[in-house]
Write a structure and sequence with these properties.
heterotrimer, A mainly alpha (418), B mainly alpha (480), C alpha/beta (260), A: 418 residues, mainly alpha, 15 helices, elongated, C: alpha/beta, 3-stranded antiparallel beta sheet, 8 helices, globular
Chain lengths: 418, 480, 260
Amino acid sequence: MNAFKNFRREAGLFLRSRTPIAALGLLCILVTIAVLLGQAEVLRQQASIDRVQELDSIEREAALAGAPDFGDAAYAAFFLTWNPPSDSAFLAMGQRDISPWMLRVRALALEGQIHETDNFNPELSLTGRFDYAFVIAFLLPLFAIVVMYDMVSAERDAGRIPLLAASVGNVRKLWIIRAAVRMSGLLLACLLPLWLIGIFIGTSAGSLLSVSLIVVAALLVWSAFILLFSFQSWSSPVIATSLMGVWLMLAIIIPLGGKLLVDRVIPDVDGAQISLLQRESVNDAWDIPKAATMERFYVSHPEWANTPPVTLPFHWKWFYAFQQVGDESAAELSSAYRAAIAQRDRLTGWISLVSPPVAVQRVMQHVAGTDVQASLAYDQRIRAFHERLRRYYYPFLFNEMPYRRELLTDIPEFASNE
Amino acid sequence: MTQAMKIAAGEWTYVLRSRLAVWTLGILVALVAVSALNSDAQLRAEATTRAEYQRQADEAYRAQPDRHPHRMVHYGHYVFRTPAPLAVLDPGVDSFTGRSIFLEGHRRNTATFSEARETSVLTRFGSVSPAFSLQVLAPLLLILIGFSSVARERERGILLQLLAQGTSGSALICGKAIALAGVAALALLPLLVSGIWLAITHPAELRPLAMVLAGHAAYLAFWVGAIVAVSALASSTRSALIVLIGAWVLLTVLVPRLATDVAASVLPTPNQAEIDIRLQAELRAVGDSHNINDPGFQSFQQQVLEQYGVSSIEELPVNYRGLVSLQGEAESSAVMDRLMAEQHALQRGQSGVMKWFALVSPYIAIRHLSMSSAGTDLLNHQQFLDAAEAHRFNLIQGLNTIHAEELDYADDSARSRDQDAEQRTRVNSEFWSHLQEFDFTGTAPAQRAVSALTLLIALLLWLTASIIMLRSATARVSTL
Amino acid sequence: MMTAQDATPDKNPALIAGPALKVSNLHVSRNGREVLSDLSFSVASGEVFALLGGNGAGKSTTLLTCIGLLPPSRGDVFVLGTSPSQDPEVVRRSLAYLSETATLYEHLSARENLRYFLDLAGNNASAAAIDEALDTVGLQPEARDQRTGSFSKGMRQKVAIALAILRETPVLLLDEPTSGLDPVAVEEFNQLLNTLRNRGVAVLMVTHDLFGACEVATRVGLLRDGRLVASFSATEDRNGGRAHIDVDTVRRAFSAPEAV
C-alpha cells in the first residue's frame, strides 16, 4: 500500500532529473531503431527467399526440360533449400550474416556443396548488426550504469544524506525504492518499443515473453553489480570508472579470452580437409575398377546390389554411386567437423556463465532461432533432403529407364520444417 | 613550454600515484602486447598450415596417374590463402572470409570454411588483435585515465590557484594533453616494436606499416585532444566522464553497427543462390561444352571448319572436343567474370557507404585505414578471389589445350563406350607436373599505403576538430 | 494535521521524563580516530543549546550521531528516550535536521522540494501550510516555483528552515544554521528560533559563531577535541528583558588553552 506511494514519489523525483531521463529516452529510441532495422532485415531475407524460390523452380524446369537422360537431369537440376527467419529473428541476427540460410543442392556428392559460403560482405559481417540482442547485451548495461551509478554518491557529494536520513528514517529502504524506479525506467525503455512493434508485426507472445525475461534477468545482474559498487563510499567518478572496468571485462575481455580458450581446448577440424578427402575419393573412382566402387555403394544400398554390373567406361548409376561413396568416405571427418562446431558452441555456453553480454546474445539467438544450433539444424535438414533427393533418382538410374520429363512428377521438394 | 612540461610532469605523478590509473595503464599496454604476441603465434601457425595444405594439394595434383585431361578438369585443384604479413597487426576480415577455394572446370566456386562461424558470439565485438585493442579499447582506457585531468583541478580550486600564480591557460591545457599523449604513446609502443620487427622481416611492407602507425598515432591523438578538451569544458568531473563515455559508445560501438545496417539497406546484395541461378540461365545460352552438338556451339563449329579449311570435324588436325572445351570455358568464364565483377562492385559499394561514416566516426576511418594498409580488407579478399579465378582459368585452359592437341577425336568420342579407346585417351601423367604454383600477392604494399591516404585525411580532419576543441578549452580555462 | 510526534503512538510522553535529547558519555570514532570522547549534555524541551567549537572539534559528528548515521563506540544518545543506534527510524521521525549547506534538489522548485521531503517523512502538510512556512522564513512568493539550483545560499537556507518548521518535530538539530544568511535574515531566524523554543521544541545547534550562539541560545557548551570543556547558561537580564549569555565570558573560556 505504502510501497506504491513511495514508488510514485520517487518516480516523480526521478522524472524531473534531466540526464537520466535523456538517457532513458535515448535508450528507447535505440531499441526502436534496433527492432525496426532487425525487422527490415528479416523482411529483406524473407523477400529474398520468396524471389529465389520462384527463380529456382523456373530454372529447374529449364534444366529438366533440356536433359537427355535421367543422369543428366539429376546433374543439372538444383534444388533450393532455405532456412526462413523465425517470427522473432529480428531480435538477433546471430549466425544469419555468417552462415548461409539459402543453399542450392543437387544429387552430386553433398560434401562438395554444403560448405559453400554465401555472398556476405565480410566487412559488414565483421561489424555485426545493430539488433535488439546487441542493444540489450552491450548498451543496456552502459545505460544502467549511467542511470544508477551515482544514486548514492551524488546524494553524499551533495551532503544530503543526513537530511534524507532525518526525513525518511530508513535510508536503505529509500535506496531500494530508488533503484526499483530506475530499473523500471530502464525496463520500460527496453520493453515498450519491443512489445508495441512485436505485436504489430505478429511476433508470438511466447517469444516476446521469453525475451522480456532475458531483459529482466540481464538488468537484474547488471543492477546487482552497479548497486554493489554504488554503495561503496567512493566518489562518483571512481564508481563510474570502476563500473566501466567491469563492463569492459565482462563484455569484451572475457569473451576474447574465451575465444583463445576455445581455440586451445577444441581445435577446429579444418573444413578444407573434408572437401579434399571427398574429392580424392570421388576422383579415385575413375581409376579403380568400377566393381570396387559399386561394392562399396551396395554395402549401404543393398537394394540395388542385384542390378547388372557396370561394363562401360561410363554409366550414370556408377557416377552417382561414386558420388555417394565419396560422401561416405568423408562422413567421419564431416561429422567430426560438425561435432567440433557443436562442442565449441557448448564451451562458449560455459563461458557465457561468466559474461552476461555473451549469455544474453546466446539466449536471444536461441529464442530467435539464429544460433549455432539452428544453423546446424539447417545443415541437418539439407542432409536429409539431399538423401531423399538422391534416393528418388536411384530407381530411374539403376533401372536404366529412358528419360521422360513426365516421369519426374513427384520430385522431393525441400520443406523448411523438414 | 617549460610550464607545460611541469604541468605534464605533475599529471604523470598523479596518474602514477592513483591506483586505478596505473591499473588501467597496465591493462592497456598488456592488451596491445598480448594481442600482438598472440596474433603473431596464431598467424605463424596458420601460415604454416596453409603452406602445408597448398604443398599437399600441389603434390596430389602432380601425382595423378595417366588420365584423360578433362578428368583433370573435374579433379581440379585447391588454392589456399596465406595470411598477409601485416595481419599480425590487423586481421581485418580474415576470420569472416573463406580460406580455401576449389578450382575446377565450368565453375567459379566461392571460398569455403570461414573461421567466424563457430565462436562468433565471442568475437563479434572485436578480435584479439593490436588493431582492436588500439582502436576500441585504448580510447576507453585513455578516457578513464584522462577524464578528470582538468575538471578535477577546477573542482578542487587548483585551477584558480594555478591561474592566480601566473600559469597560462594554454600551458595548462598543453601540459595535460602532453601527459595523456605520453600514456597513448606507451600504448602505441608494442605496435611500434612489432612494426619495427615486421619492417625488418618484410622490408617491402615499410610504407603500409608507416601508414598503420601514422593512422593510429593520429587516431589516438584525436582522443587525447578530445578527452582533455571535454575535461576542461565540462562543468564537473562527473559530466566530463559521462560525456566522454557517451562519445566513445557512440563513435566506436553504435555508429559502426548503424553504418553496417545503412550500407546493407542502401545497397542490398543478392544471395549466392540468386546469383547462381542467374549465372546458370546465362550459361545455358553459352551451351554445354561436354556436348559438341549443343546448339550453342554451332557457329563456333562453322568458324573452326573455315579456319582449318576442312569440311568436317573428323578431318581437323586437332581434337574438336578439346576445342569446344576451350571455347566453352572461355565463354562461360566471361559470363562468370562479369557477374562476379558486378557482385564485387556491389560489395565494394557497401564498403564505400561504410567508409563515408569515417566523417561521422574516426573509428571507421582508422579501422578501414588499418585494414586496407595491412591488406586484410574486402578489396584484398576480392583480389584473392580474382587471382584464384585467373589461376583456375589458366589451369583449365591448359588442360583443355592438352585435350585439343594430344587426343584423337575418334578415340575421344568413343571413350564412354569403348574400353580400349578410353585407355588411349589417357595422356601421360608427365603433363600434371607442369602445374603452376599459385602465388597471390594482392595489391603492392606501396599502392596499399597510397589508397589509405583519403582515410588518413579523414583522421587528420578529426584531429583538427579536436585541436579546435582544445583551443576553445584553453579560452574557457583562461577566463574561468 | 498529523504531526511527526503523533506518528510514535507507542511512546507515551508521560514516560519520557527529563530532557528531550540526552547525550551521555558519548565516544565516537571516525576512521580509527576518536572524534568524540566522553561527551555528555542534555537539551530539554523549550531549550536552545548551542554547541560552540572550532574546526574539527566534533560538532557535525555530534549531530550525525544523534541522527543515527554514526554509531557510538561507547555511551549513547537518547532522543525522547530512544537511542538512534537502537531504533533510528523512531528517532528520525521525531527530529528535523538542518545542514550547513542547504542540501536541496536543485532540479526541483522550492515548493517541490518541500513537498518531496515532507512526503518522505510521511507528513502531508497542506499547500497552505507550506506557504505559511515560506512566509515565516521570508522567501519571496515569486521564487517559490523556481528551481532551487538558481537560488542564492541564503534563499536555499530559508527553504531548508521552512522544511524544519513544517516537520513540527519535538527535536530540532541545526548545523551552522545562519551561515550564508544576510544580517536581516539572521535576525529573522533568531526570532523564529525563539518562537519554536516557546512552543516547547528542544533545539540543538552547532556553530563556530560565538556572537550568534550567545545571541540566541539559552545555554552554550564549549566543545574542544571531542570534549565538552565548559558550559554557560543564560541569566535573566537585569531589566527583565531577553536572556543573554555574556559574550566576553565565553570568549575568554574559548581562547583559554585548557579551559575547564
